[in-house]
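User: What would this chain look like folded?
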Amino acid sequence: MSHTSIAPNSAAASADTDQPQTELLSVAGIRCAACIQLIEFRVSQLHGIDSFRINPISQKAQLRWYASQIDLKQILQAIVDVGYAAFPANQSLSEFQSKEKNLALWRLFVAGFAMMQVMMYAFPAYLVPVPSLDGDLTPDLDRLLKIASLIITLPVIGFSAIPFFKGAWRDLKYQHIGMDVPVALGILLTFVASCWATFFGGAVYFDSAIMFVFLLLGARFIEENVKRKTSAALSVLTQIHPALAQKILAYPSLERTQECRTDEIAIGDYLLVPPGEQIPCDGVVVGGASACDEALMTGEAHPVNKQTGSQVIAGSVNLHSALVVQAKHVGSQTQLASLIAMMESATLEKPRLVQLADKHASRFLLVILFVAFVSGIVWACINLDRALWIAVSVIVVTCPCALSLATPGVMSAAIGQLAKFGMLVTRGSAIENLANVTHIVFDKTGTLTFGKLKVLQVIFPAVLDSDKLAECKIMIGMMAKMSLHPVSKAIADYLVGEPTRQSGLQNQSKIERQIEHTGSGIEARFNGKLYRLGQLSYVRELSASDWTIPSAYQNKTVTVFGDTEQVLACFVLEDKLRDGTVNSIADLQSLGKKIILLSGDRLEVVADIAAQCHILEYRAGLNPAQKHAYILDLQKQGAVVAMVGDGMNDGPALSMANVSIAMGQGAPISQTRSDCLLMSNRLSDLCFSIKLANQSYRLIRQNLAWALLYNLIAVPAAVFGFLEPWHAALGMSVSSLLVVLNGLRLLSMEPPDYDLHLLT
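Assistant: Here's the prediction, encoded as structure tokens.
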């Protein structure tokens, strides 16, 4: 195997060395949990390493290190020194993987061809003493066939089996017991003993040794292809990241452009994005008008219109006409890069079952070597001719690969399949928790509803002259624009179209201080006077007004604006349930999940939504602390809680839940505190995610049960002499393949409305 390392780029080298830096690496050549233990142990010994974790399926490693103490090149070289290939994840592995695949095919071909030839030579020996081929096999002919078998076996030992010998030598060199140690030991013992028997008499097992190598190589080749298929599902986002961009060299002139890589874009650069191309960075439109497809990033099914001043997101597609974009966030700072990093981090996070398998892999191998040694000694006293072969069978049959692959294969397949259908898992423990959820808590606005509130009517309780009315609208608009809450956005959008009689008031009104009280509203000081925009109870605290909401609007969302004296304005808003919400809630309830609605809105509004969705348990008028306390109380009663939220006021509740799910169009703070991002914004995909999580843990239990059952049966069978070495090789290979292929069953799961997904 050839090993390659690549030096870090200049950007990484020039980063702030006082803070730990993060890098995603690709590590090739990993075979089992013991390989991972060796690499992680070796890298963790290096001075300046903060953390290092490897995912066995994707073969990606998340590295945190201090550049002031060690550079990336030294870390990569340390991995190469222990016999593995290491690359920064942004480097293409296609050439390396192609060479490795071709070499693996040649090794498999040589072993397979030799196996067929040697089995032909071994066939007459199996017939002795049956005289059906014109007499018994003479000693001279028997020795000739054995020597021919030896000669044909040499290329297998010297070429096909080299990966096992290299791996075993590497493990022993670093005083580590990996899977290659018993494999190499079994091959060498079988070969050496057969060579001795060739010249000094006795049975030979060249055919078993070659079959062992062939089956192992075949199993590894299939496993590698399965891993690539599984990890390919995890590249849903990485595949959409544009590689090239058109940089404008002399803006505002568009005559001179230069093609550059997206990692060469700097903040402030002007970029030309033709129709049909992807936006290369997060930025703002400074020229042109078009529409962009942002479905993957925000869940918005319809194209979003863009004009001068509009924000654009990296990875979205420009649909109609050319746009000129000024870069605001580039590289790892873009929203797309953040989502990719969170998803890859989830695949690297090891659930408890994986940690348990990794922890005991080396110990298991030591126990097996001890059992094989004792079995050989005992059988030497019973039947010396069988002692060696029984010891070899014990070593070969008890491979922990099935045990170590039982969980990570399923987890990676699950994460990839969820990403394919709109649910990005940002923490690996989320799937485990989703499978065990008993209660699902929903926020209302932006979660069960679209969160795109529309102002139906504006009421002005106080008598205001035209100037005061215009001033109120300006102040409300300025306060609303500075908030991410859906209500504020709706009010701001409504006031954009409102004409102002005295435009000079815009310059006279100035926010001196603005504070957003999460879950209540906004307080601001204009020209030395306090104003509040938010819930009626919140505004009343400032003005002590006795104004009440008209009865006609009791089941609507109402936001009021007032000063220290009175309520000045009232906005009546309406939201709509998301498509399929009622059916999705019913599906979740049919799965045995208890559904709870928690909202900061008024009781009448929340009760109306709960009735439409057939939710029996709901709470209204809750602030973030009360939502947090409610979930904590559920957990004290033994509930496993999933929280689904959208806005800033969901942050504390999301952080408390066993598994937190943020809507894709939600506030950034809720996304950063969440275990999952529902990028599709479809609650039907949440139902699918829970069903897939349940199936994932069902498959994990099946895999673990099979791996344990196999070893409980195979070890005694080998110890008592019921298995030949080739039986052991076949059993070990099939056992490992079964658990990997079982995990692939997840890739066939699709939401029932999959065709509708394609249409939207």
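The chain has a mean pLDDT of 77. If you want, I can go into more detail on any region.
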